[in-house]
Amino acid sequence: MKQTTALVAALCAASIAGPALAQSEMDMPDATATLSNTDGETVGEVQLFETAEGILARVTAENIEEGWHGFHLHEIGDCSADDFSSAGDHYAPDGNSHGLLSDGPAHAGDLPNIYADADGNIEADVTSTALTINGDMAPIMDEDGSAFIIHEGPDSYGEEAGAGSRVACGVVEVAS
Predict the structure, then answer these.
(1) pLDDT, tens digit, 9 for 90 and up, residues 55-98
(2) Is residue 96 domain-resident?
(3) Is there a domain that residue 148 lies in?
(4) Where is the secretion signal located (predicted)?
């Protein structure tokens, strides 16, 4: 009887823990970027998940001015310059024009604006079918890496970005 009770208890525990373990594996990002502001303070993180159709970027940040902000992937994995200019331009491996609403395909690094609430917090899930982490199509982890940038204002989605200065930057690194 004690063995039966122990077996039932073990099976119950496994049925509860199994989905929890599967969920935690799903929540493990394929790559991350720690976002820092121009003072070098950590203000957030981008977690990247490879999907069948591209990537999902889960963005969390704090201490960002309230409002809409341009959010882009830039071509170089380098946030060392005070103004983050070391990250280069928007990631455009195919040479496409800027702007999600411009004629023709947009840069691979053009992503939707994200919103900081009245407390300066950002929580956003951003998807892109134009990017991959290590794949053949617009790989984020190319020779010189890539960096996510949050801009001071919203992107116009037109040929000229108009999102203003760079207020946060994070170099993409493969998750360990």
Answers:
(1) 999 999 999 999 999 999 999 999 999 999 999 998 877 777 77
(2) yes
(3) yes
(4) 1-22
Q: Which residue range(s) make up the domain with 69?
A: 29-174
157 belongs to a structural domain: yes
Rounded CA separation 113/110 (Å): 9
Report the CATH number that the domain containing residue 58 is assigned in CATH. Answer: 2.60.40.200
- Is a pLDDT exceeding 60 seen at residue 34? yes
Structure tokens at 88: 């280069």
For 106, 158, 173, the CA distances from 103, given in Å and listed in that order, are 8, 9, 32
CB atoms within 10 A of CB 70: 25
Report yes or no on 125 lying in a domain: yes
Q: 127 near 51, Cβ under 8 Å?
A: yes
Instruction: Give the total number of structural domains in the chain.
Output: 1
* pLDDT above 80 (res 135): no
